[in-house]
Amino acid sequence: MTDVDLHVPSAADARGADQALRALDGSTERALVRAVGAPESAAVELPSEARTLLLRILGHMANGDAVTVVPVAAEVTAQQAAEILGVSRPFVIRLVDEGKLACRLVGTHRRLPLADLLAFKQANRAERRAIAAELTAEAQELGFDYG
Questions:
Q1: N-term to C-term CA, the chain
Q2: How many domains in the chain?
């Protein structure tokens, strides 16, 4: 199992991430990287998908957000799932018991597939946005003015 370790950037790291993001974001699809102090011949080209992921990581770090990288095949504990979803551990257990989230037992401990958890989170977000749009449309039809 892979642990989910969140890394909260320091203010200096956030500034450095912002500078790197600005440098990479305006570049073409190709990105060459090299370690500081390494000769230019040591530069390597990032695959486009790695560049995309790096831009996302740098963007979050620049905002001071905690960041982690986890392989999709990874499993997380119920507590880690709760942190990812922004809910309590007992709520995650209830979702598992209701069959809304898959898990497997390792002894008495639940392990949830990260890919399933992220798909659940995305579907839940889409459902909430659709409901909010529906409520907004109803309010406009009824002539409510929130401005």
A1: 50
A2: 2
Write the DSSP symbol of residue 7: B
Cα(14)–Cα(54) distance, integer angstroms: 14
Residues 132 and 105 in one domain: yes
How far is Cα 91 from Cα 131, in angstroms, rounded to an integer? 21
* 94 in the same domain as 48: no
- Read off the pLDDT of residues 48-98 as tens digits, 9 standing for 90 and up: 888 888 888 999 999 998 888 777 678 999 999 999 999 999 999 999 999
Q: Which of 117, 104, 110 is nearest to 72 (CA)?
A: 117
pTM summary value: 0.51
Q: What is the pLDDT of residues 13-22, one digit of tens each?
A: 999 989 888 8
Do 36 and 57 lie in one domain? The reply is yes
Domain that holds residue 112: 75-141
